[in-house]
Amino acid sequence: xxxxxxxxxxxxxxxxxxxxxxxxxxxxxxxxxxxxxxxxxxxxxxxxxxxxxxxxxxxxxxxxxxxxxxxxxxxxxxxxxxxxxxxxxxxxxxxxxxxxxxxxxxxxxxxxxxxxxxxxxxxxxxxxxxxxxxxxxxxxxxxxxxxxxxxxxxxxxxxxxxxxxxxxxxxxxxxxxxxxxxxxxxxxxxxxxxxxxxxxxxxxxxxxxxxxxxxxxxxxxxxxxxxxxxxxxxxxxxxxxxxxxxxxxxxxxxxxxxxxxxxxxxxxxxxxxxxxxxxxxxxxxxxxxxxxxxxxxxxxxxxxxxxxxxxxxxxxxxxxxxxxxxxxxxxxxxxxxxxxxxxxxxxxxxxxxxxxxxxxxxxxxxxxxxxxxxxxxxxxxxxxxxxxxxxxxxxxxxxxxxxxxxxxxxxxxxxxxxxxxxxxxxxxxxxxxxxxxxxxxxxxxxxxxxxxxxxxxxxxxxxxxxxxxxxxxxxxxxxxxxxxxxxxxxxxxxxxxxxxxxxxxxxxxxxxxxxxxxxxxxxxxxxxxxxxxxxxxxxxxxxxxxxxxxxxxxxxxxxxxxxxxxxxxxxxxxxxxxxxxxxxxxxxxxxxxxxxxxxxxxxxxxxxxxxxxxxxxxxxxxxxxxxxxxxxxxxxxxxxxxxxxxxxxxxxxxxxxxxxxxxxxxxxxxxxxxxxx
Length: 677
Hints:
The protein has 677 residues and is of the alpha+beta class. It is 33% helix and 30% strand. Strand 30 (497-502) and strand 31 form a beta hairpin.
């Protein structure tokens, strides 16, 4: 405000007080109007904030309901967790089982003779470790035979001056990460090398062959030969036999190479804890709806909090004759109207008794809130849990169990689509020329025992077969498979093959499907090539699945068939098996949660309706701030003008008073003079 220029000295008036009161009187109505306007806008911004928070809470609750796995939980309950525990996957079948754990699976464990120190030199040469089923009697030290496990690779290690100590051999074995672990144990008087197969089970026992550079064999117990454990020499001590787990399920005998059994009961993983012959444990596998109930209840609670928020902020109370701060706001009205419309819809693509929220116990009450009947949800879930899942989440439900729903896109429309396979996916296959079966037993010897192979575009290193006499084609096929799959480059890339011997010929097949699946022999010793009927060259490449979805040509990638046009565009299915022709239908639904989330996103996103509305209100606050500044400037001008006027008046009054005083003095003087005369 302007500075004080007069205090009423001329007139004797309180000019400062008069000006202040006049300015306040002029300013007060405008300030009151701006304060009321700002308070109302701030209240609306706060109300929108509460509305936004309530909407966000509803959207957060949808995150769980929008996931298919929420509706796929299966429980597996054991009557005695000290004997066995279990977990169930989404594809498990409900049922009750009576189980007896008779024996636990074990890893094979071998130990060397005692050495003076961990740095003691053992010897040099080559260690070849294979995995398979061993016929060995520790009591009589009788090694009767070995059958190689074709699913496991073969480990060959060169032991020389750089690693020929107990510690060096341990580290070389562990560095290979090839299915066997090594450690050094001090037994109180010496150090022993202890070898354990990584995997348990009878088919994963260890066979160790040694080529000792000191004498070229492993028959003695000297040098590297001391680590031999095979049909010709058993210099290692067997501390633990490799054995399978044994149990009975409802009286049916089951063997397993591990104590974690995944293939005995569909979708159920059994974890054996201890063997107790004669003790029976009950296992109850059932569909669990606890998580579903919790998720649905949370959604209902959050929606009701939203409904109550709107009831307070956006409605008129006839009893108190007061209107909510957001009454008539289109953003609130439109959002709530769209939400309620989606909640009442029937999901397109669903048939049967579960097609809407009302079918699982969610209904709208008179006050706009939701009620939830959990018993009705439990009944619907027990009848068809996949339908309950489809009610909420985006999912596909194939009628053919050999088809699996993989994914979809925003382009995929809800509906039922027929599926047909015109050509099933295949794996790359290389077939050798015929080998007369009578050539077996077949001797493979050095240096004519190596080859190189490329699988799915991944080139192997040099693959060396064990030089020995193979009794049959299947035995040599197992050796080929383990050697190829044991190649470090192929193993690290996740590439593997299956080798078989049938109709007097070897066949090498890639484990993957599709056009990129291919097997190629890139190098092979001439004598080995003649013996095996395998030559350098490329085998027959695999091919992708071909077929139609909804009658329109789909795109294949390996075993996955994807619709590329039409209503089903973006729908991907995994086509298992080799069956061609009609493969049933897939019911695809988008669920109500996606649409509800779309409504919420339209309101809550950074450029959504709420952001636009609150931005507009914030602009109004800014405008009020500007009006306050303008008012302050105007009042300063008004005050200045008042001071100018009052100061002029005060000056004039001062002059008039001075004149009055002069005249009074003159008159007084005249009166005095007249009296004297």
